[in-house]
Amino acid sequence: MHTLALEKAFTLIEPGPVVLVTTNDGEKNNVMTITWTMVMGFSAEFAMTTGAWNYSYAALQSSRECVIAIPTVDMIDTVVGIGTCSGKDTDKFQKFGLTALPGKHVGAPLIKECLANIECRVTDIIARHSIVVMVGVAAYCDEARKEKRMLHAVGDGTFIVDGRKLDRREMMRSKLPPGG
After folding, report:
1. Are 108 and 65 in contact (CB under 8 A)?
2. Which among 12, 28, 32, 83 would be 20 to 30 A from 107, CA to CA?
3. What's the confidence (pLDDT) of residue 74?
4. 117, 93, 106, 81: which is closest to 29 by C-alpha?
5. Is residue 166 scored above 70 in pLDDT?
6. How far apart are CA 58 and CA 73, in angstroms?
7. How far apart are CA 22 and CA 30, in angstroms?
8. Which of 99, 98, 56 is nearest to 77 (CA)?
9. Sheet holding 19-24, edge to edge
10. CA 82 to the chain's CA centroid
């Protein structure tokens, strides 16, 4: 066994899957990529790490609602692209060809292209730790979707897909066959 630099220890504890979080500030929809999420117990309570550095944060604070949309491996370029531009000056739904579906319980949209969507209400924002706590109020899954493999960010530019560590560039070169 070899020593790992302590600042890389976080890469050993894989968080939940990479998700897309949608918001609506009362005027427009936005979507952001979030790689640090967690389930809180065996209920529909969730937490994610985000803060004022994300344009959507103000909408989370004011509307107190969002949708957690779960993309699959075939959406990796969209997921990375969304994470590298700002909703302040970009309509990400248009730029990335995403279909916004109306939520039944929240003003934030669901994303049709994702495997699953969870409508959520924000119950707490712990600014000191940049944590947003949410409770799910409705959940939807597209069982007809052929691709079901999710992405997990390691934190160093690589992803985990079905237990195999992959670099996004390597994955696109190898053109992994669809799963599920």
Report:
1. yes
2. 83
3. 95
4. 93
5. no
6. 29
7. 6
8. 98
9. 29-34, 19-24, 65-70, 116-126, 131-141, 45-49, 37-39
10. 10
User: Residue 45 forms beta bridges with which residues?
Assistant: 135
Position 98, amino acid: L
Of 135, 127, 125, 120, the residue nearest 45 (C-alpha): 135
Give the dihedral sign, CA 166/161/100/23: negative
pTM: 0.85
Query: CA-to-CA distance for 25 and 45, rounded, in angstroms?
Result: 22
Provide the token pair at 25: 């500030």
> What local confidence, expressed as pLDDT, does residue 180 receive?
40
Report d(CA 34, CA 21) in Å as an integer: 7
* Residue with the two structure tokens 């997990």: 152
Measured between alpha carbons, how far is 138 from 133 in angstroms, rounded to an integer? 16
Q: What residues are paired with 133 via a beta bridge?
A: 47, 124
Residue with tokens 């117990």: 41
If you search the block for the tokens 């909703």, which residue do you land on? 87
pLDDT-based confidence at residue 5 (cuts at 50, 70, 90): confident
Element of type H or E holding 80:
helix 76-83
